[in-house]
Records
---
Amino acid sequence: MAKRVRTAVFPVAGLGTRFLPATKALPKEMLTVVDRPLIQYAVDEAREAGIEHFVFVTGRNKGVIEDHFDRQFELETTLEMRGKTQALDALRHDLPSAGRTSFTRQQEPLGLGHAVWCARDIVGDQPFALLLPDMLFKGVPGVLKQMMEAYEETGGNVIAVEEVPPSEVSSYGIIARGEGPDTGFAITDMVEKPRREDAPSNLMISGRYILQPEIFALLADQPKGAGGEIQITDAMQTLMRSQPFSGVKYQGTSFDCGSKIGFLTANVAYALDRDDIREGFLAAMNKLNFGQQFDQPSRSNRTAAE
Ligand code: UTP
């Protein structure tokens, strides 16, 4: 039986240059989709999948992420005094329990692979989930939960993938698909940012992984790859020689919130899905006079779109 995955790693040490100047002092992962920071969505997804220990690899200017996952006594007391019990309960519910978070620093942003390697001593000799918080997934159940179901069957390493237009493969890590259903198929190869003509498929590695701890030793010696950064895909490619990798083509919609278009689209999608916001938001959009009226999508339409 596959060893249970209890720990998740959240690399949050990137510079977020595509979001400057917003990210000059504010971590990209604290940007909000409607009223929740991106990092909170990732933590929620991990909790839903049964994760018990949350490891954040942070960098300079990221102290606010640690504060976000701490109690705020002054705020809580004020909410209590004002009788805002619903807001208070929601705040408390968002927090992993005491002792379940760990923070370490990536002293230089040398790449995602290097950020993951920085978590090696905290994770230790056990499988772990890796979630990139700027990839936001909307769907039920969450992507990591869907991957956990595959992992229980296959063990080894599991990667979430989605289709991208062939013209975009050179921006992503791409896998080659072997046998098996969408809920868990063999991965036979992978490559980071291939040229379109060299890409083994149009299935993109989309920011959620379940990895075995042997990846750490490979990351330790991993030379810089695409973009001059230490790439997790390169280390996974080596690990594939000795361990199985499965892919899950997940159900749901993804938003690349590291890009402005993805981030703005996510805000619209999540706002339209909120009963307390939808109507007022649509009315405000219609006032902007785009030359087109936006209709209120019915709940059934929204579900089908997901
Ligand atoms: P990105 O590739 O989106 O890089 O990182 P970035 O630096 O955050 O953003 P841009 O491209 O400059 O706008 C994907 C994830 O990996 C983390 C990021 O914080 C993000 O969650 N990361 C990336 C690190 O933790 N360290 C790194 O050295 C690079």
---
Amino acid sequence: MRIIAVMNQKGGVGKTTTSVNLAAGLARKGKKVLLIDLDPQGHASLHLGVDATPDVPTIYDVFSQARTLGEVRHMVSEKLFVAPSNVDLAAAEVELVDSPIREVVLRDSLERLTRAEPFDYVIMDCPPSLGVLTVNALTAAHEVLIPLQPHFFALQGLSKLLSTTALVCRRLNRNLRVTGVALCLYETGTRLAADVCDDLREFLKHSDPDAPWAAAKIFESLVRRNIKLAESPSFGQSIFDYAPKCSGAEDYAALVEEVLAMERPALKETVSVRRPLTNSVPLPRAA
Ligand code: ADP
Ligand code: MG
């Protein structure tokens, strides 16, 4: 089983589009997939046609310990399940503050579910913040996939995001690895996109070997801007059902193949030596 958190604290960079189409694409390849919607906006749920009206069990019920993850997961197709969310989830951020188990609720409920019902992949669509919901995702995950829209400010946000993974790795989940950066909403042929990618590649090349992102790669598959990707959520369909021949479907199919080809990162046997990380902050190119 691989557990992947799709994370970036910036909004509108392609997290939900990537989570949904990665999950759907893996399911099309015969993998049993659970998509966990961790954003109170509930966009991933809606994108798969699940409207979490007040009577529908949601991931909020898991955080408030009213239900198990098994009770809230909803079948979308034979291989694809979603644990939906709605605006109720916003309350979890506040309610968990005083809980002694606030960072591990999701990890524990996922462990309980997957012992009884194995999944090949668990994909978590994180909210656009570094709050307790994202920390829950990072604590439960083996891998972090970062969707990034290649423009000038992209790398500035990245340093904060990476230091959060380092913190969670030290304190809560030493097996956490940033495995890849997926370039989304890519404008082909622009100099800026190419520059940002070069800077990012350079930064990753000089990563501290102990940093959780030391082995991260930039996915070869670029997700180009494609209007069909923006249309498909309102039809409650993944891109593979909505417009299987468009460039968006092509790009996400290629990303799925790359994810399938990756090895799950090895689990650490020994406690790593704690020392300050070098190059923990990527330097954005001067404007
Ligand atoms: P996030 O979850 O990071 O906020 P979304 O995946 O919701 O980002 O994407 C933000 C908006 O951009 C959405 O309206 C989505 O439909 C659209 N979008 C995402 N990726 C693409 C793309 N490659 N081409 C065109 N529109 C896209
Ligand atoms: Mg989103």
